[in-house]
Amino acid sequence: MSHRSRPVSRLRTALRTGTAALCVAVLAAGMPSTATPAHAAAAASTFPSVNGAWDAPGPYATAVQVGAVNTLYYPRDIASSPRRHPVIVWGNGTGAAPLVYRELLLHWASHGFIVSAANTPTSNLGISMRLGIDALAQADGNPASIFYRRVDLGHIGASGHSQGGAAAIVVGADSRIDTIVPIQPGPLADIDNVHVPAFLMAGQNDSIVLPALVRYFYNDADHIPAIYGEVRNADHLTIVGDPGPFAAPTTAWFRFHLMGDAEARPEFYGPACGICTDTRTWSDVRRNQLVA
């Protein structure tokens, strides 16, 4: 299903006029050299296996709840779930709303995640993303909420696209965050403040957030386990509507780091990681010395 209509046009215009200029400015400042960080695996997963089908819908039917600050995407029957579900907080690109990324966020929810997407077109500071964690913490303790005792507040990831990708880096400094997936992140963030594993994604043909900017963040991540993945032939809006090549790797990453899904680990870790050998999907993959 595609949503490449008016929200996409607004996103395209905003990104081309705002983020691109900032990216050029940061790149002009020069690139640091390579890095060396550390990794901690999650506990054994109690979630159903998907047998490596990261790009297929997961085992959960999904629901959406639109709030004042955040939109929630989550397993529909969460109130009767026998387990707590990990959280992903999401930041939109410049001028965008969660609806633009609906298919990706529902995909994660179908795999058992509670996704809290900020209802703001200017997510860079990560304020709404943090408020989303606060709101879910309150819901987890509220007997009247469908999320009562169903939120795994011990396993929280942060992700976002463009300006929201920068927000994921900003929010990655929060002690409640366990991992980050910045997707084509804008330049207004400092990865030095992040102390959790990072999967930094670029698009080979992205002319708004250049791959070199994403590599800048990767090269600066010399204190955390960091992976750089450049999606072959992807431009800045490939993720919009149908998430295509972004769905599978992000799902695998979060299933490993937030659910402890051991089947997802070989996609990123070990001597023959899956994304390292998948040249059809990736034009460039780099792992620093702390990715073991």
From TrEMBL:
Q: Does this UniProt record's set of keywords contain Ribonucleoprotein?
A: no
Q: Which residues form the PET hydrolase/cutinase-like domain?
A: 70-261
Question: One Pfam family of this protein, by short name?
Answer: PETase
The organism named in the record is Virgisporangium aurantiacum
Record keywords, A-Z:
Signal
The record's section on InterPro entries has: AB_hydrolase_fold (IPR029058), PET_hydrolase/cutinase-like (IPR041127)
The answer on whether this UniProt entry bears the keyword Signal reads yes
Signal peptide (from-to)? 1-40
Q: What is the recorded name of this protein?
A: PET hydrolase/cutinase-like domain-containing protein
